[in-house]
Write a structure and sequence with these properties.
- Its cofactor is [4Fe-4S] cluster; Mo-bis(molybdopterin guanine dinucleotide).
- Belongs to the prokaryotic molybdopterin-containing oxidoreductase family.
- InterPro entries: Asp_de-COase-like_dom_sf, MopB_CT_YdeP, MoPterin_dinucl-bd_dom, Mopterin_OxRdtase, Mopterin_OxRdtse_a_bac, Prok_molybdopt-oxidoreductase, YdeP_MopB.
- This protein is an alpha/beta fold and 852 residues long.
- Helices cover 33% and strands 15% of the residues.
- Strands 6-5-18-17-16-7 form a six-stranded mixed beta sheet, sandwiched between helices. Strands 25-32-29-31-30-33 form a six-stranded mixed barrel. Strands 12-9-8-14-15 form a five-stranded parallel beta sheet, sandwiched between helices.
- α2 packs across α3, α8 crosses α27 and α9 runs parallel beside α27.
- The longest helix is centred in the middle third of the chain and has 18 residues.
- The radius of gyration is 26 Å and the shape is globular.
- It starts with 65 loop residues before the first helix and ends with a helix.
Length: 852
């Protein structure tokens, strides 16, 4: 971009501390960390919003027959790849995890490139892992500060293979859609901007100026800015996320759905009215110090493997761990720490031993039974308090810091044991065993993930978690508090940066003051409402900054129908995914840098930043030379779009922010509390903590207190043949990215189209292991059916089944959402299961081949 009078190259006051970009001499000593500060933490959640809803009824898509109606498949191909079953594993990680990490890194990135990326991942002078948001240690970090899935993500990002224009000339969209999701990802890094023009069935090369011209013409040609949807992936760092919401609001809309709408929206909606902050309150060191850890609706061995190291430390310090999950997961059973293989004293014992026992009490709850389970534990605790007054409930904390205790207490005491046992599937005696671990302890942490938040009662269950912690005084002190474990690397940071469809007035006022425009105040669409609006033809442009909404969202064929109705779809990404293939009339596929890539701009080597699950903001500075091509950074793409679209209407210096990301951070420092002196604090090794009121017993609720909740425990009757489905990840995937067809911890090899079933449920339906089955979901009289899954007997509560996403996502109805948060209920889908009707020789032969 040309020099302008406002560029930091010509006006140093426009920049932050450009001369310190990467300058170690000016950085604090290793291990130093700034205090959290006193500024109020940004809290972008409202628990009782006047939410914008699309009320028109949209009929269920014909999921089973969609493959015959559209040449481009929205669902993964049905072809089976050869299931092999083994016993599920009882120990997570170990030497196999080390070998798998090396295998993926060297096969995709090459030995030199792949190893260099691994050794710089999650280091204080390196880049942030692009997979999960588990925090890094404040002080010492291992040479290998990564897990198996982080290594897979790094390998995918550092892939030396290229999916360039020639690849897309060779393969039509229809042909690409018949590839597996794994093979699409393995096609290589996107290298050049591409366009699918009206009527075309291929992507072809396009120059960046025309890209921005197409976007600007479509956006400026709409009847209203609200006809555009701007979606964000949780992989996007803070700086481009801030610019993305800034552009959308300068353009005139709050339509900013993001993946948080589908995961921890329920957490924020439950925490905000109870503690005053929609984020967790603990640090990594608190995990190490806890006396009791309760892990609910989470599988850390697959989804957050580095958490196992923290749990191992806690166990060595004497902690007791209660695990609550419908499935028995290896990572919640035993853990062999791969880091111990580098210690000569520990190596042999680690290799031959059984690992660290993680769980002391395992409660195999029924799907959606977590609230009842929590009530059972608290009912036992109140009984213990009656026998031991003042020794179980922290009366001093309750009286000084909380409100609503008596109403909450009566709500628990009046809940019958019959309801608790029926809904949770856990006996009164088992719940007493868990309660006895908690009764005399005060350093208690509850960790949870989407197994809680994607239930129908996800928000209410989060409130019940807070109730348990409040009655024990287990918040706002070392070793105690709330721990919602976020999924993608910067999904929490994106919300902090303003990626939300319902930002508070205070944030919008700060934007107006900083950038000189009046932001729109009408609430925008979240993910579910965006899909509905798109499907009804109320929108014309869908812009996706990373991510794969088609595979991540509910009701896959509904999303596909919505995308096909758009005049323009824009996808920014690093690698090809299925979501890029289901397009609007015109579609743009734009290549960008990964976290591991060196981002060189006019001011030099740029860094971005991410916020982890525990509110630490740290730098992300790439170390790999990008694959040869014509990629732009996310910042440059957003700024190019803004310049072309807004033209003379904007007062924002988009050029300066493209040339030097310090300029972006200077703006953020003036807009968002907690980011004062952003450029300076970010350069300290390890970054800095954002303010966190509940961590210090400062509850910024409306009444200034932590609030107990009186929740409602609901029963949902099923028909005799119905089951409840939850979707989960395999061990060889992260979010929607599929690395392989295996899930070795659960004993699955060579296949993803599987349904885990209780053996008794299989017998009731005359289904045998490896039989082909069809699955139908039922919601308000509508049905959605997927075909040709493989039945797998598994240790799961009777009446419950489980399958992988995205394969099972077509079963999740768009209208089935958690109350208040509007999060799709991927952890509660009512289904029936029948044997697949085998009506022709082809199906018979395929089944025989699979069985062999």
């Amino acid at each position: 971009m040309p020099d302008t009078p406002h560029s930091p190259q010509n006006d140093p006051s426009k920049a932050g501390r450009t001369h310190e970009q990467g300058a170690e001499a000016n950085a604090p000593k290793s291990g130093e960390r700034p205090n959290q500060g006193e500024a109020p933490a940004p809290n972008h959640y409202r628990s009782d919003p006047n939410r914008t809803h699309v009320h028109a009824h949209i009929p269920a898509p014909d999921v089973a027959n969609a493959k015959y109606e559209h040449p481009v498949l929205a669902q993964p191909p049905e072809a089976l790849t050869g299931l092999q079953l083994e016993e599920r594993q009882k120990i997570a990680a170990g030497v196999t995890a080390v070998l798998k990490s090396m295998e993926f890194s060297w096969s995709e990135g090459g030995m030199t490139r792949g190893t260099h990326a691994l050794l710089k991942m999650n280091q204080k002078d390196g880049f942030d892992c692009s997979s999960c948001a588990w925090p890094d240690p404040d002080e010492h970090r291992s040479v290998a500060e990564f897990c198996e899935n982080g290594a897979k993500a790094s390998a995918s990002d550092s892939d030396h293979r290229a999916a360039g224009p020639e690849f897309f000339m060779k393969h039509s969209l229809a042909e690409l859609s018949r590839m597996t999701d794994r093979d699409l990802n393995n096609a290589g890094r996107l290298t050049h901007p591409l366009v699918k023009r009206p009527g075309d069935n291929h992507y072809s090369r396009i120059a960046w100026p025309e890209v921005f011209d197409i976007i600007a013409k479509e956006l400026n040609g709409m009847n209203s800015p609200e006809e555009a949807i701007f979606y964000t992936s949780g992989k996007v760092p803070n700086e481009p996320a801030f610019l993305f919401q800034l552009f959308a609001r300068e353009f005139g809309t709050n339509n900013l759905p993001d993946c948080s709408n589908m995961c921890h929206e329920s957490s924020g909606s439950g925490l905000t009215p109870t503690t005053g902050l929609g984020k967790g309150s603990v640090t990594l060191n608190d995990i190490h110090e806890a006396e009791v850890l309760i892990i609910m609706g989470q599988n850390p061995g697959t989804n957050h493997p580095r958490m196992l190291t923290a749990l191992q430390i806690a166990k060595k310090n004497g902690a007791k761990i209660i695990s609550v999950n419908p499935l028995i997961e290896a990572g919640l059973n035993h853990f062999r720490n791969p880091q111990d293989f580098m210690n000569p004293v520990k190596a042999l014992g680690t290799l031959l031993g059984g690992g660290t026992q993680i769980t002391d009490v395992y409660l195999q709850v029924r799907i959606d039974g977590d609230m009842a389970l929590l009530r059972g534990i608290m009912k036992h605790l109140f009984e213990a308090e009656d026998l031991n007054p003042g020794q179980v409930v922290d009366r001093a904390f309750v009286e000084e810091f909380t409100t609503g205790f008596e109403e909450f207490k009566q709500n628990i005491l009046t809940t019958s044991w019959e309801d608790i046992e029926e809904i949770s599937g856990i006996s009164r005696a088992q719940l007493l065993e868990a309660a006895n671990l908690i009764a005399r302890k005060q350093k208690i942490i509850v960790c949870w993930a989407m197994g809680i938040t994607q239930q129908r009662q996800g928000v209410e269950t989060v409130k019940e978690i807070v109730n348990l912690l409040l009655m024990k005084g287990a918040i706002g002190k070392p070793g105690a508090g709330t721990c919602p474990v976020r999924g993608h690397s910067n999904v929490q940071g994106d919300r902090t940066m303003g990626i939300w469809e319902r930002m508070p007035k205070k944030f919008l006022d700060s934007l107006e003051k900083e950038f000189g425009f009046t932001p729109p105040t009408k609430d925008g669409f979240d993910v579910v409402e965006s899909i509905k609006a798109m499907r009804l033809g109320h929108t014309k442009v869908y812009f996706s900054l990373g991510g794969n909404l088609l595979a991540a969202g509910p009701d896959t064929e509904m999303i596909a129908e919505a995308m096909r109705k758009q005049k323009l779809t824009v996808y920014v990404g690093t690698k090809l995914n299925r979501g890029h293939l289901v397009t609007g009339e015109t579609s743009l596929l734009l290549p960008t840098f990964a976290h591991a890539d060196i981002d060189m701009q006019k001011a030099g080597h740029q860094m971005t930043s991410c916020e982890n699950s525990m509110g630490v903001v740290s730098q992300n500075k790439g170390v790999l030379v990008p694959v040869e091509g014509d990629q732009l950074s996310e910042v440059a793409i957003i700024c190019g779009m803004a310049i072309a679209t807004l033209g003379s209407k904007t007062k924002t210096d988009w050029v300066a922010m493209t040339e030097n990301y310090d300029v972006i951070r200077d703006h953020i420092a003036r807009v968002i509390p907690g980011f004062e002196d952003y450029n300076q604090k970010l350069r300290k090794p390890g970054g800095f903590y954002l303010p966190n009121g509940p961590r210090e017993r400062k509850f910024t609720t409306d009444n200034g207190k932590a609030n107990f909740s009186k929740t409602t425990l609901e029963k949902y009757p099923l028909e005799p043949d119905q089951l409840v489905l939850m979707t989960v990840r395999s061990h060889d995937q992260f979010n929607t990215t599929i690395y392989e067809y295996n899930d070795r911890y659960r004993g699955i090899h060579g296949e993803r189209r599987v349904l885990f079933m209780n053996p008794a449920d299989m017998a009731d339906r005359n289904i045998k292991a490896k039989d082909l089955i069809d699955i139908t979901s039922h919601y308000k009289g509508e049905q959605r059916r997927v075909e040709r899954f493989v039945a797998v007997p598994y240790d799961i509560p009777k009446g419950n089944v489980s399958a992988y996403f995205p394969e099972a996502n077509p079963l999740v109805p768009i209208g089935s959402v958690a109350k208040v948060s509007n999060t799709p209920t991927s952890k509660y889908v009512v289904v029936t299961v029948v044997l697949t009707a085998v009506n022709n020789d082809i199906r018979i032969k395929e089944r025989e081949k699979m069985m062999a």
